[in-house]
Amino acid sequence: xxxxxxxxxxxxxxxxxxxxxxxxxxxxxxxxxxxxxxxxxxxxxxxxxxxxxxxxxxxxxxxxxxxxxxxxxxxxxxxxxxxxxxxxxxxxxxxxxxxxxxxxxxxxxxxxxxxxxxxxxxxxxxxxxxxxxxxxxxxxxxxxxxxxxxxxxxxxxxxxxxxxxxxxxxxxxxxxxxxxxxxxxxxxxxxx
Length: 192
Hints:
Elements: E1 9-10, E2 14-15, E3 18-19, H1 24-28, H2 31-34, E4 37-42, H3 43-56, H4 63-80, E5 83-88, E6 92-97, E7 100-107, E8 114-115, E9 118-119, H5 124-135, E10 140-142, E11 145-148, E12 153-156, E13 172-176, E14 190-191
Antiparallel strand pairs: 1-2, 2-3, 4-5, 5-6, 6-7, 7-13, 8-9, 10-11, 10-14, 11-12, 12-13
């Protein structure tokens, strides 16, 4: 089967011709392939929604609790800049930081997604073996999250720590330009 290069998962690069550091306008040139935008959100709107929620729940949430959550939200914002997220009809979610593309996330609706010709949402073991060989990296695993650390690529629900298969309905993959901010300690992971 021939695979479309625009749907090639390229760790540290992007997805086909849509590469990291592109602007939303540049990425939108591929909307016929990547799908229409079905939802958008940004970190500024999220803060406003959080404040509105606290206001509605003021009888149930203490001022101290509100302050703690807002401080954490501010800390994340200070580390990441203005975040914009767009969901697409094809099962892709794209994240932009300060106007530049920084992350792709795909669920099992992205059926054309492949890594060097291996479909991402078919045989999990074939995909993991292909990626480990091509990336020259042994992945790390914790629960049902598999991480190719050097390549900032994450497989979710593909395989579990006990090496049984993950949930086919909940499989997803994410790949980023940089390591996830505020991510879990890698000491919690084990080499697969």
